[in-house]
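hey
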């Protein structure tokens, strides 16, 4: 007989049928002549209640099983008079694996910090099971959203020689022995002797490669791991995170700003529909009122302001910020938080940032001071999307690459996109973990990725 999942049982409710379920014990309560087992198999938020009579073979042994033990249970699915609509009348219970007293996930509440230390066991908890089922649905929603709009899914390289954001936050990839580096006469490393024949890194974005495909297939999106060695020990930064990057030929900034807002709203609606049990848990135990908040966000157009307007709002707010606000500085988390949490009380799209604080590939505005950049900020998180219209004019981007001191040889192919049939095009990147945080209400980015990588942490 094949195993059925708990999700399947709650979906189909095959009352009266013989079934086989397997899972982990959430609780086991023994009364005089029978016992109650609460089983979870991770397929759904819901637990399955099982009633096992004392006449069953092995009764004395399996009723000794502690929380976290794994069981295989044959039985009949019956209607239940209790809180759940169904339960199982067991006909055979087999122990798959027992658990000693020191199982770290006992029923009582455990802190998020402690659970991070047992990241291999935490998906067995209610909260983490819910987070990772929602994460799955967000990935499905992403593919559905872009596929339905005619985008092609593209896998861009993870190994690269380019610092595509120009921010110097690269992880080096090398096969050279650090104790026997090939050095030239002046003591510099001869990178020609390294594996790829030049300095190589893990990607900080797939954007530049996605541009090549947008400028041929029209609309593409990437969805892959991204690596940044920024030394930010915050609740919103990871050294390894996942990013979705749509890139659209013939589109201007307005078009992708709208696309970004629509994408976020689509993800929200998808999860509210597909994960009601998980959302109910977040609503009660993680962020009170999150369902109503998300329903409103999904139904309300996002506010739009320019960077210059944002700076004006911040200056007029009379709020004491730790970082001083003046035209030209990058917006800090506290500034973004003021805009989303206090001023607009919702998501806001900020456009046209000063060129000095943004990447070389962004299209210059006529004013000579700003570029066609946009960030989408959401309450509680800050920046969830960063994007721009790309500089499609060959002479201007050539000058910019020279100005930033980037190696022109590395960007030759990128300039070809402007040399041969250049077109206006735009795109953005959405930080997948930040989206999971926003939609679950989880407050630390370390708790929405299976195993987190942050400065000084690469366990598991
Ligand atoms: O704003 P960023 O740096 O933009 C880019 O990488 C562009 N190439 C995107 C594009 O236009 N195709 O990063 C995009 C998003 C941010 O808005 C943020 O949500 C997320 O990626 N992000 C991070 N998420 C977690 N940890 C980090 N260290 C992150 N850095 C960026
Ligand atoms: Mg950004």
């Amino acid at each position: 007989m094949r195993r059925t999942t708990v999700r399947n049982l709650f979906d189909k409710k095959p009352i009266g049928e013989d079934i086989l379920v397997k899972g982990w014990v959430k609780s086991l309560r023994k009364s005089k002549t029978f016992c109650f087992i609460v089983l979870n198999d991770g397929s759904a938020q819901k637990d399955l209640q099982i009633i096992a009579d004392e006449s069953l073979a092995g009764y004395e042994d399996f009723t000794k099983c502690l929380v976290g033990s794994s069981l295989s249970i044959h039985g009949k699915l019956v209607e239940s008079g209790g809180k759940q609509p169904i339960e199982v009348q067991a006909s055979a219970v087999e122990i798959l694996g027992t658990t000693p007293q020191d199982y770290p996930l006992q029923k009582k509440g455990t802190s998020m910090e402690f659970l991070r230390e047992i990241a291999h066991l935490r998906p067995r908890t209610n909260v983490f099971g819910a987070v990772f089922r929602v994460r799955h649905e967000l990935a499905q929603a992403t593919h559905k959203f872009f596929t339905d709009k005619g985008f092609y899914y593209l896998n861009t390289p993870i190994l690269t020689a380019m610092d595509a954001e120009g921010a110097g936050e690269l992880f080096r990839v090398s096969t050279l022995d650090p104790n026997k580096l090939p050095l030239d006469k002046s003591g510099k490393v001869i990178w020609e002797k390294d594996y790829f024949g030049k300095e190589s890194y893990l990607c900080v974005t797939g954007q530049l490669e996605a541009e090549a495909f947008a400028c041929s297939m029209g609309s593409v999106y990437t969805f892959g791991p991204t690596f940044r060695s920024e030394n930010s020990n915050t609740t919103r930064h990871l050294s390894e995170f996942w990013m979705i990057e749509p890139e659209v030929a013939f589109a201007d900034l307005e078009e992708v700003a709208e696309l970004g807002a629509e994408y976020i709203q689509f993800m929200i609606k998808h999860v509210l529909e597909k994960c009601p049990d998980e959302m109910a848990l977040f609503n009660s135990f993680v962020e009170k009122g999150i369902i109503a908040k998300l329903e409103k966000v999904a139904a309300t157009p996002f506010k739009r302001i320019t960077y210059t307007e944002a700076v004006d709002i911040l200056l007029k707010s009379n709020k004491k910020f730790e970082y001083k606000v003046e035209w030209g500085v990058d917006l800090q988390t506290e500034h973004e938080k003021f805009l989303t949490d206090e001023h607009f009380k919702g998501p806001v799209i900020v456009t046209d940032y000063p060129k000095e604080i943004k990447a070389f590939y962004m299209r210059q505005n006529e004013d000579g001071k700003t570029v066609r950049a946009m960030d989408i900020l959401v309450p509680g998180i800050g920046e969830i999307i960063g994007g721009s219209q790309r500089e499609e004019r060959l002479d201007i981007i050539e000058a910019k690459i020279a100005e930033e001191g980037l190696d022109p040889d590395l960007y030759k192919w990128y300039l070809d996109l402007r040399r041969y049939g250049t077109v206006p095009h735009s795109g953005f990147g959405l930080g997948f973990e930040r989206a999971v945080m926003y939609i679950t209400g989880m407050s630390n980015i370390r708790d929405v990725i299976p195993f987190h990588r942050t400065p000084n942490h690469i366990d598991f």
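The chain has a mean pLDDT of 96. The CA atoms of residues 117 and 233 lie 17 Å apart.
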